[in-house]
Amino acid sequence: MYTTESKDEHLEDKNVQSSTTPQILKDNNIREHEETKQTVLTETEETKPEMEKKSSCPPQGTLNKFITNGVVLFMIWCITWSLSGPEVLPGGNLFGVLIIFYSSIIGGKLLELIRIPSVPQLPPLLGMLLAGFTIRNVPFISEHVHISNTWSSTLRNTALTIILIRAGLGLDPQALKHLKGVCLRLSMGPCLMEACSAAVISHFLMNFSWQWGFLLGFVLGAVSPAVVVPAMLVLQEKGYGVEKGIPTLLIAASSLDDILAITGFNTCLSIVFSTGGILNNVIASFRDILVGVLVGTVLGFFVRYFPSGDQTKLPLKRASLLLSMCVSAVLGSHRIGLHGAGGLCTLVLTFMAGMNWSKEKISVQKIITTAWNVFQPLLFGLVGSEVSVASLKSNAIGLCVATVSLSLLIRISFTFALMCFAGFSFKEKIFIALSWMPKATVQAVLGPLALETARISAPHLEPYSKDVMTVAFLAILITAPNGALIIGILGPKVLTRCDASKIRVELTELKLH
């Protein structure tokens, strides 16, 4: 009896437990569901005002920003129209500048959106160039977009000044000291060889005179820091070629290469458009060089100590002083007839100033870069707008492409030969030679400059200057995208990679000679 009853009691307890367990689980589930429901309702109530704000009227966020910027631009246009009248209407200079500026920005942004897997980003300047070319050659748009030669020349010379300022500030005395042998060979040899080869090729292929041939050669001889420097910085950050200082070498040599090309072009330009003899032209060129170096030295010493280091907003004041002095030097030298003095004055002035500023130079460079970001779309847009398909001869494009291609082939071969005695491997020499081909900024400035000078002083030489302009345009179109792609694709494959976090190569440790 006892055992039976105890068993029955045990069974009853189990039944009670089994019957209460689902009930407890059920109650827990109901509570969890109610808590989740309350949480969701609470979050919905909290986010509801935010959703109402986003969809509220007046609009908020990006749409509000877009409308605000549009109204601000429209009001600036209204104020400008009230001051200048027809200049901001279709056919006016300001209207043309604004259309080319914004079209070039849109063209550059569209090119940035084109991303192909495993292919480096194309330089935005190509989109800016094509935007200006489209404006010139679309019939309806070209009828209403017009910029006078004076405005166009002033804007391009200002862009040239900013390029020279960046080149002067970008010259690192330590890099030049420790890389002086290979850096001088790389900056001077290929530029001079391409200038001479382009002069010979254009003389026999395009029937250029020797003066015009060398002028064209120095237009083509410059490499583009706008393409080379960003690509080298990307490789340097990833550690490619850092051990032998290849990115540093190419960045330093690009500035010297541009300086040589611009100086040679100004000398040839004064010879081509001068009415005196060769001896007088040579004396005038040396006079321009002497005046530019002297004035640049004096202004360089001034900028070293004014403004003083205890002033507020020092980088902004220094950048403003540099820009005002250098733009005045370049534009003023053209006004008084000393065409080559302004550029040299700018280079000497900025180099001397940068030597004294040391690390503070970086802040000034950032401000100058901001100014370049404004003038870069104008520069390449104006260059593209100078090329008219209707005015090109039937065989002009073929001859220009042949001249650019042959000169470029000689340049690449000569660059490879010069690097044979600099301590690089075979693959590194191939990379340096191919990296030294992109052309953009200097060609965009110097190409139209010959055309502007011919229109003002010698209209009978305008056909030659148009051919120079076409060659410069095609050189940018061919070499800028291809050079960027070659550097981006070939660099990681042929250069030795070092861990940038563990290996920090200083310029004093470089063994190049």
UniProtKB/TrEMBL annotation:
Segments of skewed composition (Basic and acidic residues): 1-15, 28-37, 45-55
Residue intervals of the Cation/H+ exchanger transmembrane domain: 117-481
Pfam families xref list: Na_H_Exchanger
Record flagged with keyword Ubl conjugation: no
Region spans: Disordered: 1-59
UniProt topology in membrane: Multi-pass membrane protein
Keywords: Membrane, Transmembrane, Transmembrane helix
Subcellular location: Membrane
Keyword Transmembrane helix found: yes
Main localisation: membrane
InterPro entries xref list: Cation/H_exchanger_TM, CPA1_transporter
Membrane spanning residue stretches: 63-82, 94-111, 212-235, 259-283, 289-307, 341-358, 396-418, 471-495
Family, similarity comment: Belongs to the monovalent cation:proton antiporter 1 (CPA1) transporter (TC 2.A.36) family.
Protein name: Sodium/hydrogen exchanger 9B1
Protein's organism: Ceratotherium simum simum (Southern white rhinoceros)
